[in-house]
């Protein structure tokens, strides 16, 4: 008898599952028989005064929440612009190179001018400015000159730490109608060798510097002689 009753119970449970599956008609609903239902764990035998069993079962658990981290957008709305400005201030603390290639400066270097670039190591390079690429910290200029009768071009980073200084040797006679003077690569428009112009510029600059220093020394010497005569 015991085996027959167990078989009947199993068949009845399977029958309830089949009926539930037929009623759902393909819905995504899980059905269980009453035999697989699990009751909640029993409550402790002794509850503290003023606490009911329903309050223990129905009260939700408190989840600890944390405030969101501070937003970087509130601290710095344009991080790339701020980073570029900080780098430029480190590489060019006086701001002379920034003013030399600024669009708002009327005395800025322009396309067609002859520029002289001095480096920490190596000989200086002078050439006609063919292009000015303004890219913040990566601002660069393209210079063209002739070395041993061979056309030579060089891209120079304006804010590079290897660059000591940039000077304007000669201004262009007229404003260039193009932003890039790539037509100067043709023999018809090539400026040729610029060593004579650069040497004359360096000579006049040295003479002006020595003249100012010599005048100051002469004044001091004459003043000393006069003071000696008076004494």
What's the quaternary structure here?
single chain
Note poorly predicted spans.
Answer: 4-12, 212-231
**What profile does the largest beta sheet have?**
5 strands, antiparallel
Order of helices and strands: HHHHHEEEEEH
* Integer-rounded radius of gyration: 44 Å
Question: Taking all residues together, what is the mean pLDDT?
Answer: 78
Shape: rod-shaped
Spatial gap, N to C terminus: 147 Å
What structural class should be given to the helix and strand makeup?
A: alpha+beta
Spatial strand arrangement across the major sheet = 4-3-2-1-5
Number of strands: 5
Quickly describe the structure.
The chain is built from six helices and five strands, in the order H-H-H-H-H-E-E-E-E-E-H. The protein is an alpha+beta fold.
Describe this structure in words.
- This protein is an alpha+beta fold and 231 residues long.
- The protein contains 6 helices and 5 strands, in the order H-H-H-H-H-E-E-E-E-E-H.
- Strands 4-3-2-1-5 form a 5-stranded antiparallel beta sheet.
- The chain starts with a helix and ends with a helix.
- Residues 4-12 and 212-231 have low confidence and may be disordered.
């Amino acid at each position: 008898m015991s085996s027959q009753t167990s078989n009947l119970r199993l068949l009845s449970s399977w029958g309830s599952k089949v009926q539930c599956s037929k009623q759902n008609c393909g819905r995504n609903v899980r059905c269980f028989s009453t035999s697989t239902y699990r009751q909640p764990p029993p409550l402790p035998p002794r509850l503290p005064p003023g606490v009911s069993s329903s309050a223990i079962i129905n009260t939700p658990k408190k989840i600890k929440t944390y405030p969101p981290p501070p937003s970087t957008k509130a601290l710095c709305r344009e991080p790339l612009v701020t980073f570029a400005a900080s780098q430029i201030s480190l590489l060019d603390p006086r701001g002379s190179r920034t003013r030399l290639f600024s669009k708002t400066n009327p005395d800025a270097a322009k396309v067609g001018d002859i520029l002289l670039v001095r480096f920490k190591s190596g000989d200086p390079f002078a050439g006609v400015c063919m292009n000015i690429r303004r890219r913040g910290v990566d601002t660069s200029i393209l210079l063209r000159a002739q070395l041993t009768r061979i056309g030579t071009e060089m891209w120079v980073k304006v804010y590079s730490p290897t660059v000591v200084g940039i000077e304007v040797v000669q201004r262009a006679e007229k404003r260039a109608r193009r932003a890039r003077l790539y037509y100067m690569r043709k023999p018809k428009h090539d400026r040729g060798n610029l060593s004579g112009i650069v040497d004359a510029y360096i000579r006049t600059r040295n003479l002006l510097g020595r003249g100012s220093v010599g005048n100051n020394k002469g004044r001091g010497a004459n003043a000393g002689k006069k003071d000696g005569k008076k004494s």
